[in-house]
Amino acid sequence: MTDRTHTLDSPPVASKKKTDKSLNLARLLLEGRAFIALLVIIITFSLLSPNYFTGANFLTMASHVAIFGLPAIGMLLVILNGGIDLSVGSTLGLAGVMAGFMMQGINLEALGVVLYLPVWAVAILTLVIGALVGLVNGVLIAWFRVPAFVATLGTMYVARGIALLITNGLTYNKLSGTEALGNTGFDWLGFNRIFNIPVGVLVLGVVALACGFLLSRSAFGRWLYASGGNERAADLSGVPVKRIKISVYVLSGICAAMAGLVLSSQLTSAGPTAGTTYELTAIAAVVIGGAALTGGRGNVRGTLLGAFVIGFLSDGLVIIGVSAYWQTVFTGAVIVLAVLLNTLQYGKRSR
Q: Of 89, 85, 76, which is closest to residue 301 (Cα–Cα)?
């Protein structure tokens, strides 16, 4: 009698296995949503337009993805730390303007000369400018305990304002340089290819690999995940929390400046409004890639997939002739859906 009662009260083994399989399938779909979304986008637009599924078009779209994929990788590091960086778009614009300013020649009135820097020096100084913006963000947040949203919102306006002041609201054009001045080659990032792959895409690949190695194979990566998951516990465990926090904002600034170089090189011009709303695109790529906005969860692979989802969706809508207004609607809908899926994936764990 006892055995019978136990049998009746226990759930059927087959039913339990079926439930487990359903949960595993749902978890697999959630974790692979960015890849699935990318496949759906490619298939859909390939059916809608014969010009979409071509090697040349994929390379062109990939070069567009590189421009906001680079800030997205920097944003991933910040979000893993539990922060946010609203200044990446303005940093991108400021970096492009500073590169354009240096390519036009630095007028040293006191010496009566105009200094023309070689392109490699322009690139390094531009990255330094991005790092300085990130350093300001990191110090404000780590040492002065200014909320990340407020600190980066402030630097967003400051960086954009400096770019407007430098250019007086105008655009630097024809940045290809002059052989006589020794500053040619600025368009190399934007137009050159190595093994038929755009240099900008290769730059994105190298940065992604370096960042992936940093997160998975270094003490910095372990400290970053730990501080993002529970900053107080990480601090008590001896993790240099403040140094990590400053470092991620510096790296985010460098990634944004790199994107500014790639964009200015592709256009051979630099304007103070470049990169507007790119901070939102970077956040969207990170969220679509499955990172948790609360910090401590996410990876480079997912962020790259998220960037390709946004890029391939936007370019696909252009190819089939959809209005720019509807493009904004579709992109926003994808972001909202990604946040909802993140809530499903991480919500129960956080509670």
A: 76
Angle between the N-to-C axes of helices 33-48 and 300-319, in degrees from 0 to 180, rounded to the nearest 10: 20
CA-wise closest residue to 255 among 81, 85, 63: 85
- For residue 92, give Cα distances in angstroms to 103, 282, 299: 17, 12, 23
pLDDT per residue over 106-120, tens digit each?
888 777 788 889 999
- Dig out the tokens for 134 from the structure: 């990130």
Which residue, chain included where needed, has tokens 């372990």? 222
Please indicate, yes or no, whether the overall pTM of this predicted structure exceeds 0.85: yes
Residue 159: φ, ψ to 5°: -65, -45
Cα–Cα distance measured from residue 84 to residue 310, given in angstroms and rounded to the nearest whole number: 20
Start-to-end CA distance of the chain, whole Å, equals: 41
Taking only the tens place, the pLDDT of each residue in 269-285 is: 999 999 998 999 999 99
Distance (Å, whole) CA 202 – CA 217? 22
Domain boundaries along the sequence of the chain: 65-341
Q: Does residue 59 register a pLDDT over 90?
A: yes
Output the CA angle 214-265-75, nearest 5 degrees. 30
